[in-house]
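Hey, can you fold this one?
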Amino acid sequence: MLSFLLRRIAAVLPVLLVVSLVVFLILRLAPGDPAAAIAGNNATNEDIAQIRTQLGLDSSIPVQYGIWIGRVLQGDLGYSFYLSKPVTELIAQRIEPTLALAVGTVILAVLVAVPLGTLAAWRLGGWLDRLLSGFAVAGFSIPVFVIGYLLIYLFAIRLEWLPVQGYKSLLGASGAGPWAWMRQLILPWMTLAMIYVALIARVTRASVSEALTEDYIRTARAKGLTERAVLLHHALVNAAVPIVTVIGIGIALLIGGVVVTETVFAIPGLGSLTVDAVLNRDFPVIQGLVLLFSVSYVMVNLLVDLSYLFLDPRIRY
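Sure. Predicted structure:
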């Protein structure tokens, strides 16, 4: 397994290099000049040229990329054009809300989707199965921001059960209590989990229903095991590999959904930082965030691959 792990890590490096290069080129070739935006409408050409020199934008694109990637290898993601702060500091300040939103969404989605998909497979063609199919179609069809606004209208405006927007940190001396912290995240968790639940539940249903047709299931029932034991200890366990795989793949949906969800609920996380950086053409922040998201996604897929060893002893790398 160690050799497999080393090979996967070695394969990750070219992927991250290509991602950084593509993002760097797209930002540099896109229309607009961040120096002109920083200088303002009344700036002269000399002022803009001076700002471009200060930001290092007057060099050729290969030179700019070489300087940036060299700093990245040293752990330096550069300085924000607009906030004049290190990108690593901005990420550290905003990462707690994003982690809370993402981790809570995954936990909520798995706790809801796996039992729902398993029960739908157990009663294939029943009312729960049909309800799950309709929910999956709605979850994939309705945009995240629409779900967010609907939940805000129902639970925050009409019923007044939950706060509309904002985030209070759980950590630190001024942190909110656990219930206040969770209360402000319930609506964002529900919003982001809708698509994730639809995806995982559909795959769970398909995998478990297929497992229930296998010979070892008939053998387990012939031995006198209860339906609960057959469903949980035989069908679900043997269907775990595709379920875990789709959970890892869904991280890509989660990354995109975080940006929209944080914008809707005014959560000061990495998603809202990404939106602000794109609007302000803050190249270093965008590049650092995309690189961070890419590393996170690659590491999750690596953990998913390694989990196969524990889920299915027939798999050997």
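The mean pLDDT is 82. Let me know if you want another pass with a different chain boundary.
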